[in-house]
Amino acid sequence: MQQQISVITLGIADLARSRRFYAEGFGWKPVFEIPDIIFYQMNGLMLGTWRAASLAADSQRSPAVGPGAFSLAHNVTTKEAVQPTLDRLVQFGGTLLRAADAPPHGGFRGYVADPDGHAWEIAWNPAWPISPEGYVTFGT
Predict the structure, then answer these.
(1) Within 10 Å of residue 103's Cβ, how many Cβ atoms?
(2) Residue 94 to residues 70, 79, 104, 105, Cα–Cα distance (Å)
């Protein structure tokens, strides 16, 4: 089986509030948008934000809004870009979870939650180069 992730879909409560965080905070452009879901084309995968009730109905699970036991990450190209990215995301509806600092394993990172509590690590890792297309490679 090919080692890939095609789509990550986050259950959200309010599409407009979520759109503000992702489209205005991150600056991402939706590629598909209807009343229950928005898709953002990423580098190699799709990110969907879908009303939690609709996602639950589609997967035949009980509706739930909120974070799971995971975090998503957005790597930036410089250490200096971490804090301004966190600040911008908070400005557009995010909640600061952890101020930017240097973890024991190196680099620089902080955490912000989207309006539905999904955790995003904003990180700079000098050992993980980012291509001009935005692809991150493990180690150099």
Answers:
(1) 12
(2) 17, 20, 26, 26
Domains along the chain with CATH numbers: 7-60+70-124 (3.10.180.10)
- For residue 101, the 8-state DSSP code is E
Evaluate if pTM is beyond 0.85. yes
Which two structure tokens, joined as six digits, stand for 39? 């898709």
- pLDDT in single tens digits along all 140 residues of the chain: 878 889 999 999 999 999 999 999 999 999 999 999 999 999 889 999 999 889 888 888 876 656 666 789 999 999 999 999 999 999 999 999 999 999 998 999 999 999 999 999 999 999 988 888 888 888 75
The tokens for 29 are 């452009």
Q: What six digits make up the tokens of 44?
A: 């190699």
Cα dihedral 129→134→135→140 (10° resolution): -10
Q: Please, what is the end-to-end C-alpha distance for the chain in angstroms?
A: 26
Backbone angles phi, psi at 62, to 5 degrees: -70, 140
